[in-house]
Specification:
By secondary structure, the chain is α/β, with parallel strands linked by helices. 29% of the residues lie in helices and 12% in strands. It is built from seven helices and five strands; from the N terminus they run E-H-H-E-H-E-H-E-H-E-H-H. The longest helix has 22 residues. The two termini are 29 Å apart.
Length: 234
């Protein structure tokens, strides 16, 4: 097994740390990570968001109703907790009255971090989360995560969700305009390039298959240039 970076959990040859930097956006993100997702750091994007966003947290599990850390956060008076979920009555950055309802409190955004199949399991096991106000996007976005195929085109990854939420909040002056979330996306783009390159190398026989299912991927993939991707810590 290749030696790994203990910060981004990637092989040292594909370490993402130099492509990002800490972002203090004034929003607290809490990622509820399914236990299966925690084991899938090869393709998961939640950890990229976590290492990028100051004061963010990852809580791993399946049933969070009795999670003491989550309970503490949800009842902390400094926060206004919401669940990121595309409900019809969801708040968005552009919804009138958001700044008034926050009333000086820090937005606490709960995100389910898992595959879409496992996300349904988390929803089934944690109905209490739906008692929280919902928060969603004003715009419509498409994922650049070409390494994976989501069930629907509008489904985006965890790191993209955090990025677009910050950008929309900035558009309404609810997050400082000087905050730069781009390094978080830089790391995500670089991860995509690393993964596609590794897949092509397996197809070409340059590196061995890591999993039984690797053999079904036998078509070389185009690797996007992402010319705007720059080193965050240089």
């Amino acid at each position: 097994m290749s030696e790994r970076c203990y910060r981004c959990y990637k092989p040292l040859s594909a370490c993402l740390c130099k492509y990002t930097k800490e972002i203090d956006c004034g929003i607290k993100f809490v990622l509820l990570m399914h236990t299966k997702e925690a084991k899938r750091q090869r393709t998961g994007t939640g950890n990229i968001a976590h290492i990028s966003l100051k004061d963010s947290e990852i809580l791993v599990g399946i049933d969070f109703e009795n999670n003491q850390r989550l309970k503490t956060l949800l009842h902390d008076p400094q926060y206004f907790p919401v669940m990121l979920y595309p409900a019809k009555d969801a708040w968005t950055a552009k919804k009138e009255g958001l700044s008034q309802i926050l009333n000086g409190k820090k937005l606490l955004v709960i995100i389910l971090d898992s595959t879409w199949f496992c996300a349904r399991k988390l929803i089934e096991r944690n109905k209490f989360l739906f008692d929280l106000p919902k928060f969603s996007f004003e715009g419509e976005y498409r994922s650049i995560f070409t390494f994976k195929h989501e069930p629907r085109p509008e489904y985006i990854s965890t790191v993209e969700s955090c990025y677009y939420l910050i950008k929309e909040m900035q558009s309404q002056s609810l997050v400082d305009k000087d905050v730069e979330p781009e390094p978080m996306m830089n790391a995500f783009k670089q991860m995509i390039k690393f993964q596609l390159q590794a897949e092509n190398e397996r197809i070409l026989g340059i590196r061995p298959n890591s999993h039984d299912y690797d053999s079904k991927y036998n078509k070389l993939r185009e690797i996007p240039s992402f010319s705007d991707c720059v080193t965050g810590n240089s």
